[in-house]
Amino acid sequence: PMSHPFIERLIGSIRRELLDHTLFWTVTDLKNKLREYQRYYNERRTHSGRNGTTPVSPESEKVVNINQYRWQKHCRGLFQLPMAA
């Protein structure tokens, strides 16, 4: 059977960005971590195929002053993105 290229790419992204760096103990723990990654992937992570925007547009777009920012952690600290302070 032939797999869809988009699905294969998504599985690769999930493995490289999350599962290779994260331990999970139970099925529930894995589901929770995948749900957090899904929220990060759809709402925060920059996407190259959509002109650098995320599939879900943020509620409010704040311009970050380069001198006043802090790091926001996602997926239990696995990913960190700058945000306005």
Q: Nutshell version of this structure?
A:
The chain has 85 residues and is an alpha+beta fold. A hairpin with a 4-residue loop joins strand 1 and strand 2. The radius of gyration is 15 Å and the shape is globular.
Tell me the helix content: 25-40%
What amount of the residues lies in strands? Answer: 5-15%
Mean pLDDT comes to 78
SSE pattern:
HHEE
Description of the molecule:
Strand 1 (69-74) and strand 2 (79-84) form a beta hairpin. By secondary structure, this protein is α+β, with helices and mostly antiparallel strands. It contains 2 helices and 2 strands; from the N terminus they run ααββ. Strands 1-2 form a two-stranded antiparallel sheet.
Give a topology summary.
Blueprint lengths: L4 H15 L7 H17 L25 E6 L4 E6 L1
Antiparallel strand pairs: 1-2
Keyphrases for this structure?
2 strands; two-stranded antiparallel sheet; 38% helix; 2 helices; alpha+beta; globular; single chain; 85 residues
